[in-house]
Each structure stands twice: as structure tokens, then as C-alpha cells.
Amino acid sequence: MAKKPKKQSGGTPATVALTQAGTAFTVHAYDHDPAAPSYGEEAAEALGVSPGRVFKTLVAEVDGELTVAVVPVAGSLDLKALAAAVGGKRATMADPAAAERTTGYVRGGISPLGQRKRLRTVLDASALSHPTICVSAGRRGLEVELSAEDLAGLTGAVFAEIGRT
After folding, report:
1. CA dist 83 to 22, 64, 121, Å?
2. At what angle do helices 13-21 and 148-155 cross, to 10 degrees?
3. Cβ atoms of residues 146 and 112 within 8 Å
4. Which of 141, 114, 111 is nearest to 8 (CA)?
5. Cα(2)–Cα(16) distance, rounded to whole angstroms?
6. Is the CB of residue 82 less than 8 Å from the CB of residue 162?
7. Closest by alpha carbon to 57, among 45, 30, 39, 81?
8. For 4-45, what is each residue's pLDDT tens digit?
9. pLDDT tens, 148-164?
């Protein structure tokens, strides 16, 4: 009789993926305020971390294909630069429902790690200027801190200048 695979207990798909990969990371939890106007800026403030080190995960559509963009919360996504980074012509923000359905996460808690379906990922090159960065750990009020290189390795991300300040 075959053994049943062990069910992963605790954590989010993002933290489970990091643990399974043996990647060094730190989890930071904070009390999320549903009235906060910006999830990323709320995280930076709650953690006492520079907004340039906290990155938001955005899902865009590049030439009809969902693509993940990871940019500092202190700025915004340059859609033209994102399209160019993946060899596309046109990028628009993805429908929020499609982003949630495809990644398995809710808006404000989308992590570049542990997504339901692995999507092309572009990480803003500014991430390389920090020893570690923070990204969503898969739910509002939970961030994971790791090196940009480890994040890129686990998601297959390419680095490009896709953020605007």
C-alpha cells in the first residue's frame, strides 16, 4: 500500500515553497488594517523598513499572457518597460479576479512565490541594491524577507528596470 503524501501544515504556499527549497528567509507578521490605502506602504511602515526595500507583486497582461511584476512599494510599475523586459509589445494591468484565480492569492496578499500557476516574473533591478527585500508571504499582514537573487532563482524571474518613482 502506497504512503499518502504528508500534508503541509501551517504557513502559506509561499513559505512552504521557501522551506521546501531550503532558502533562507524571515517571516514578518503585522496587524493589517483593512482601511489602509496601500498594502505595501502599510507593510513598510508596520515593519519599520524603507519602502524601497518592500516590494509589491502586481499581475499584468503582456500581449495576452499574465506576467508578474515585482516593484518597490515606493513607486509604480512602468507597463512599457515590463512589456519590453519580456519581449512583448503591450502591457496592461490584469483583471483582479483573473490575477487572484491564477495565483491562488487575494489582492493585497499576492506573493511571487508559491503561486497556483507559475507565471513569467520580472523583478525590478533596484532589488539588487539591497541585501534583502520583503515581499508578500501570501496574505495581507504577512511579509517574507529574502535576497533578491533567491527570489529570482525560485520564481525564474529576470531583472529589469520596470519601476518608476
Report:
1. 32, 11, 11
2. 100
3. no
4. 114
5. 24
6. yes
7. 39
8. 333 344 689 999 999 999 999 999 999 988 888 888 888 989
9. 999 999 999 999 999 99
